Amino acid sequence: MCRLDGAREAEIALVVPSFLQLTDAGTFSVGEFGTPGWTATGFARRVGDAVPLSLGPETCPAEELTALLIMWVIGEVVAREGEQPRHVAVSHPAVWGPYRRGQLYAALRAVGVHDVTLVPEPFAAAENHAVRSRVVPDSSLAVFSLGSHAFSASVVRRSQNRTFDLVNHVEGVDHHTGADFDDLLAALVRSRLGKDGVVSVAECEAAKRAFGPSVVISGIEITRDEFVEEIRPSIDHLVSTFTRALGAVQPDAVLLVGGGCRMTAIGDALSAAVDCRVLAEAAPEHSVAKGAAVAARLVVLGPESEPEPIETSVLVHTREASLRFPVGEIAHPDDDEFTAPPPRPPVDVSPLELPPRRVKRVASVLKPAGRRSGSRSDSKYDDEDGR
């Protein structure tokens, strides 16, 4: 969330896992994982997929579930702030074309969310960075994004009108992501416990985020060096894909976004592979969301004068020479192509009497459940993707 009468930087208003659960009463709860088959997650990246998700007796397209989650988040923040947002920005993968963006626009309009700008994720990350550090025209930034279930590498360039252009982008397919690293840590612990050992994946995920010299999981001590040795091939694969995405571009900085980048081994490996600064916020899973909020502010107020570089003493230490500290800003997105969904093809279609959209019925029974929003986030609800 960005305040129009306050600082240019964004603040975190609410953090909730992207889970939608259909209850026995026929209502939806948000943010809690329930019975398998009745809970949907990971649907935001399936927008435009013709195969719907099955929730017990219901089947719902991914864009409808995504729109419902966005509607719920807006409602929670409105309840806290006491007013409607002037504008909403939603981040999306850089590979999305007009069809997927149009599908999400239509689903958002169906649930009553109209003033929306869609922002590619690497643009949002770059805009968040530009809040804190001056990015001159024609300079380039690289974005290394590693979340729970997705990896991507992007290069963006600052244009003369202070927006960002996409130079190159690679979407990971066979790369390990945050959830895979949790499984590798669990397997390392299980190998010490024996075949009958029980390991909590949630405990492994928490330990991975805050790895000190060693961690104890299910009574087994795992040193950081042991874990890094276990995941080294996966990290090398990620870094080699990232360097191929850079090509001949020499970026001014590499921005680490996504909760998977909390692992210091990621920053260390990138620092050894590139000849520039490697930067990350203390909570990199929030960087894209904060950049999207700054983009929404720019849509309403327009661009402002370039800020002077901000000195900061907040440092996130790595064991090697990587420079990692909070980053931020965002340029005015070029949303001319986002003003309306793609035009229909010039074909004659016989009119049909369509049934009422199910999403309106689903939206009417969407009820918050579990933790209510507050003035700060709770780390146990943080999702590494930050989406």
TrEMBL record:
Residues 331-387 are annotated as: Disordered. It holds the Pfam family HSP70. Residues 234-297 form the DUF7159 domain. This is DUF7159 domain-containing protein. It comes from the Bacteria. Keywords: ATP-binding, Chaperone, Nucleotide-binding.
